[in-house]
Amino acid sequence: MRLKDLETRMRAREWFHSLALVPGAWTVVRVDGRGFSSYTAERFEKPFDRRFSDLMVGAAEVLLTELGGRYAYTESDEISVVLDPAFDLFGREVEKLVSLSASIATAAFTHAAGEPACFDSRVWIGTGAEDVIDYLSWRQADAARCPLNGWCYWTLRKEGKSHRQATRALEGTRVSAKNEMLYARGVNFNEVPAWQRRGVGLWWETYEKAGRDPVRGVDVTATRRRIRVDRELPMKAEYRELVGSLICDI
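Predicted structure:
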């Protein structure tokens, strides 16, 4: 069998989808840690560990850079990266975007953590900037809901209750009762670090860097870009206003 014939036959069996992002659409790529409940169980403090958050922020920075995104948001074990309508990497192929974003996050996190971890990825598509703002508000709402449950659950677990006992104790419990439970144990949930309750935002900002022109022998300033990491995000209407100003500045 000739090599060329073999190659033709093998390539005919390569299977991929040619689906591409809708032209002019806003896109959000979201990566999630695969099996992170068990991965983090014995490696990090519960319910939150700043070391784990730093690893997620680091992976978000790499994704934001490699994908040329406008804004990234991370909470828990997920990262969302906003891509504006002009995004054209990989020919806007969905399969390529999903596979590469997952591999980028996996590589960045694994390298920083010093041990293997794995992410999967999905694509969300919006018809306008307002859709993207709604999406980010949705993810922050999730970030605001989960921490209270997490703090209550792990507080009970650390008191000796089993998974089943802690879960049953919290079933049907109102938000006010959960806050009171924590307060009785010395935890004021409103004073828990904002990044635990609101997530972390990342975006590009410009700054002036001082330097010297060796040819002319004069001091000069140059405009540079860097990623800003915000662990004190506002909530609700103020958050919508913030992300709107960031993603709409195109």
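Summary: The chain has nine helices and six strands.
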